[in-house]
Amino acid sequence: MLNLSKTVKNLVRHRHHWDKVMQATAARRPLPQFNNSPDSHLREVTGFGSNPGALRMFMYVPERLAPSPALVVALHGCTQNATSYDHGSGWSTLASRHGFVVLLPEQQPANNPKNCFSWFQPSDTARGHGEALSISQMVERAIADYGIDRRRVYVTGLSAGGAMASAMLATYPDVFAGGAIIAGLPYGAAANVQEAFASMRGRSRSAAEWAELVRAASPYQGPWPKISVWHGTADATVDPLNADEIVKQWTTLHGLPVVPTRDDRVNGYPRQVWCSPTGDELVESYTLTGMAHGTPLAIGPAADQGGSAGAFFLDVGISSSFHIAKFWGLVGDTYIPAVEDITLAPVPHELLRGAEERVGEPIHTEPTEHDEDKPPFNVQAVITNALKAAGLMK
């Protein structure tokens, strides 16, 4: 582990990068809280438990539900909230077509200045504690309120939400039948701020080490949830190596070989699949060639299309939400509500303004010739502000 002096040295060397991040954060207005506006079709639920993680709970329940409906928990990324993630990903549109319920937990700026879930904090990613417990309490409330089939509860998320989905799958594998991790990280990738930085740039461990982290996270020992992994090859924010590490973690838990059962192409993109001896698909991995950091979308009215393009919602010709739902068995159910697809209201422009910040642009690793001309600055303040701006400090 790097010591404090090395941490300070690295932050000083990267001063130009952090200056840009802090300037962008200072210029951006606080995230608008518009989930309860007339334009939103999400409903906030309160009183769902002790809520030690201090999260908010939002639901989308279609007009007509399938008997014993399924539940999808969708976790937003940094700079997003429940409404913007639902709007971009298209999960509520799928729910209205196929009669399942969507639960959208929401982070609060008081917990994290960039609205990131605290995937790198052990106190928030342990069973029975913090944000992980809050989300599990929301699931229990949804099950009780809507008669959810406990065998059909799933979780997905983008980026920090994807890493938090990994945490939920590891700490509550008895609750979730499946999960999907988009541009995220494996469970146990980080246990503090410093490790979070390192893991986002890519950290490799042995398959056995990754699997043991999950086994130690709960008393449950299988059968394990089925897992869908999505990552763009041009992602400069969360290194694509993390997709391989997630696959290693879950194929090992399932007792599957390293070599995939088959290689497919879906909408032009490579898909690898690992199957059980009986042919059940247990792990899949989509490689989005040339795609940057975000959720893959296919915009349009067709059954395998949906969502809305924007910051971190990328129209690349394949709908991750649709194919994840299909992998889980939620698409193609015999019950299809005979109602029109919901119409999503536009997301207020101020939510997206500046969200395209170049989080992943190359960092200046060496001082420039003009560095000596800069005035002195407070190193401790730089460290604190930088970590807060990156969403890695409360």
Throw out a few tags for this protein.
394 residues, alpha/beta, Rossmann fold, ten-stranded mixed sheet, two-stranded parallel sheet, 12 strands, 31% helix, globular
Short description:
The longest helix is centred in the middle third of the chain and has 17 residues. With 394 residues, the protein is α/β, with parallel strands linked by helices.
Task: Report on this structure.
It is a single chain. With 394 residues, the protein is an alpha/beta fold. The chain has a single domain, classed as Rossmann fold (3-Layer(aba) Sandwich), CATH 3.40.50. Helices cover 31% and strands 16% of the residues. It has 12 helices and 12 strands. The protein has helices at 4-13, 15-27, 82-89, 91-98, 130-146, 160-171, 193-200, 207-215, 241-253, 320-328, 349-352, 379-389, and strands spanning 43-45, 56-60, 71-75, 101-106, 153-158, 178-182, 226-232, 262-266, 269-275, 281-288, 295-297, 313-315. It has a 10-stranded mixed β-sheet, with helices on both faces. Strands 11-12 form a two-stranded parallel ribbon. β8 and β9 form a beta hairpin. α2 crosses α12 (379-389) and α8 (207-215) packs across α9. The two termini are 22 Å apart.
